[in-house]
Amino acid sequence: MSVATTSDSSGDVVLALPPAPEAPRRGQVVLVGTLLAIAAGVMLFGGLLAGYFSARDLAQAAGEAWPPQDVVVPNVPLFMGYLTLLMSSVTAQWSVSALVAGDRRTMYVAIGLTLGLGLAFVNALSFAWGQLALAAGTGSYADTVYAVTVTHLLVVIVAHVGFLVMGFRALGGQFSPRQRQLVSSAAAFWHFTTLIGLVIWYCLWFLEGGP
Q1: Distance between CA atoms of residues 39 and 189, nearest Å
Q2: pTM for this entry
Q3: Own/partner long-range contacts of 118-123 (Cβ < 8 Å, ≥24 apart)
Q4: What domains can be seen in the chain, in order of their start residue?
Q5: Chain segment 4-14, per-residue pLDDT in tens
Q6: 73, 70, 191, 199: which is closest to 131 by C-alpha?
Q7: CA–CA distance, 118 with 84 (Å, rounded to integer)
């Protein structure tokens, strides 16, 4: 490490240390943390879906119906719920695009629509659970379905909290086209919840009876 020297008014040599390195920007730390959380979520849902298909194969090998014959899958509410979640992903990205364009009012609208559509998905999923009329612990089908869908619901709630915090900070004027890492991170996590939701819909519902 080189050490610079300088002199004061009396001519004495004074050692000057090199400038300290720049501290890492917090926004990049948030973005990296979000990507790590997404990677962990992919592994989590991969394990849950593997458990679902394993239980499905065992039940079918034993000659059992999957889903049970007395279970009617509410395909229409489920399809509309996951379609709503897909729409919320569009509005989440819209909030990022509005911030890049410097249109803060549009960003507020996009954040509000994203939260509203996400809550609509939560309501649709709750309604579908009621239509299934299954209690956890009554069989492998109920246990695996609830394990996957409840976990996904919790992840959606986490995404809601992130967007809500982002909305309050946006109202405080803390974001700009150059300072948008938190907004991009929240949108990326929301896209992850949407993508996982579509995979769940296809694996748990579409393959078991169609939309």
Answers
A1: 10
A2: 0.81
A3: 118/85, 118/88, 118/156, 118/159, 118/160, 118/163, 118/190, 119/160, 120/81, 120/84, 121/81, 121/82, 121/84, 121/85, 121/88, 121/156, 121/197, 122/153, 122/156, 122/157, 123/81
A4: 41-60+71-208 (1.20.120.80)
A5: 555 555 555 44
A6: 73
A7: 7
